[in-house]
Amino acid sequence: MKIKFIFIFSIISLNIVYSQNKFSKADILSDLKYLKTSLEDTHINLYAYTSKTEFEKNYSNIKQEIKKDSFSVLETTKTFQKIVSKVNNGHTRIPFPVQSYVTYAQSGGTIFPLEVAVENGNVYVRKNWSKNASIKVGDELISINNTPIDKVLQKIYPQISAERLYFKNAQLENLTLPRFYWLTFGELQTFEVDIIRDDIKTSYNLQSIKAIEEYEMKRDDILKHNMLFKLLSKEIVYIRPGDFGGDIDKYKQFIDSSFVEIKNKKPENLIIDLRNHSGGDDAFGDFLVSYIADKPFKWSSKFQLKTSKHLKEHTRKYKDTTQRYWKSILKHKDGDIYDYDFGFYKPQPLNKRFQGKVYVLVNRQSYSQSTVTAAQIQDYNFGTIVGEETGEYPNLYASIYNYQLPKTGIVVEVSKGKINRVSGIDNKKGVIPDIIIKDHLLDEKDEILEELLDKIPPQ
Question: Which of 99, 163, 228, 325 is 20 to 30 A from 73, comparing alpha carbons?
């Protein structure tokens, strides 16, 4: 049976075939040491968002917790992620244990029945999958099983890699509280929740729900992967470009045909929707931007890479080493951090470009390359950014690659590169929209688009 969700994390773990269901304490400790040294060797700046002292202390504390003689794949994954998440880098992580979750779900496993949105430090119900219809979307969730919700989240956060709390909460919304609650606390059959509505607190006893039949097969993901073109009015056209990844020829065909249609319709306003976007590769973002750019452009002011023995082995095994980019990794010494220049990208010919007013929608669920692309458009003044601050920074430690730990086969994803936004400004913030509109609850009501349409003056 196919599970209907798509993670923002790599799903490479689905393809791993573990040679055993249990790992010995010796294997865990061996891989723990390898994990630490490999992160130090491969990450371009391991201590950008955490101090070496904090990292070492966390490492020692987790090492001391390894006392049993054997550990399951799930226990091992969770343990290693506690190490990696202390780096506080969203692109450096142990991927969510999809394989373990799918196995659990297919065996009849059950999960917590409420999805949430986190806004201004408060946790609100955004989806109620329980059989208790008294709990409404927008109700504030303040505790689960007599534990205040902030303490529940503190237990979950070590399983989420992110630069800051705002981004952790965005990933909690996207990957969902039911999945993370299972990952952190295991299977529970009942939940006592405290809910506040109109300043009145009410307690409810909820039954767990079946992970597949009552959850995965009924819901839709927050991230939107489909391409969409539509004319909202005679003067306004809307494009959702889809993921910045996959079949680039198919992607370019969609963008090309969209702008042919725009040329024929001659609207004054173009809305590009990068909300709920998984990110991807700069080649996709640049091709889109080439249709609204009025001069040659770059996707970053500076791009840096760190090469290492690990990365070179990965490059030789999986990449085309005749390409300039991969050649550069092999020719530098292990540990070198160097600049790599992708050069300028040319705009489309004038007769193909859109020359009206461009609006780009973003929200806290605009990930990775979509954040970088939004910053690129803002910094070159190619368009007006609308929505809420992105979860990720446009100055991004990313350009990830993955490797397996030798004893357990657990996959590690690590940032080998650093992207600096076009403006060069690094203020430890996401992309701040020119027009700020909050996306409340991430629900079906589209506050950002609706309010923007009200602001666009009629022609």
Answer: 163
What is d(CA 168, CA 170) in angstroms, rounded to the nearest whole number?
5
Query: How far apart are the C-alpha atoms of 214 and 409, rounded to whole Å?
Result: 32
Q: What is the pTM of this model?
A: 0.94
Q: Give 203-247 pLDDT, tens digit per residue.
A: 999 999 999 999 999 999 999 999 999 999 999 999 999 999 999
The string of pLDDT tens digits covering residues 121-150 is: 999 999 999 999 999 999 999 999 999 999
Q: What is the rounded CA–CA span in Å between residue 328 and residue 322? A: 10
Given this model, what pLDDT does residue 12 score?
A: 34
Q: Structure tokens of 250?
A: 């198919």
Paired residues of 19 in beta bridges: none
Asked whether 131 and 207 are in contact (CB, 8 A), the reply is yes
Looking only at the bridges linking them, the beta strands covering 269-273 and 384-387 are unpaired
Sign for the CA dihedral angle at 344, 348, 354, 359 comes to negative
The count of C-alpha atoms lying within 13 angstroms of the C-alpha of 230, restricted to the half-sphere facing its C-beta, is: 6
- For the chain, what's the residue count? 459
How, if at all, do strands 147-148 and 140-144 pair?
Answer: antiparallel
- Both tokens of residue 126? 């955004």
Q: How far apart are CA 176 and CA 14, in angstroms?
A: 19
297-348 confidence digits (pLDDT tens): 999 999 999 999 999 999 999 999 999 999 999 999 999 999 999 999 999 9
256 within 8 A of 290, measured Cβ to Cβ? no
Mean local confidence (pLDDT), 43-67? 97
Report whether 115 contacts 125 (CB < 8 A).
yes
Determine contact, residues 326/320, Cβ cutoff 8 Å.
yes
Residue pair 301/420 in contact by the 8 Å Cβ criterion:
yes
Q: 13: which DSSP letter? A: G
Give residue 20's pLDDT.
58
In the numeric block, the tokens 């010494």 are attached to 333
What single-letter DSSP state applies at residue 459?
A: -
Sign, CA torsion 394/374/438/367: negative
Q: Which two tokens stand for residue 404?
A: 């397996």
**Distance between terminal CA atoms of the chain?**
51
- Rounded distance between C-alpha atoms, residue 51 and residue 86, angstroms: 10
Q: d(Cα 291, Cα 394) in Å, to the nearest integer?
A: 21
CB contact set of 52 (below 8 Å; sequence gap of 6+): 46
Give 28's DSSP letter: H
Where b means 16+ CB within 10 Å and e means fewer, 166-183 reads bbbbbbbbbbbbbbbbbb
CA distance linking residue 393 with residue 391, whole number of Å: 7
**What's the DSSP call for residue 205?**
E
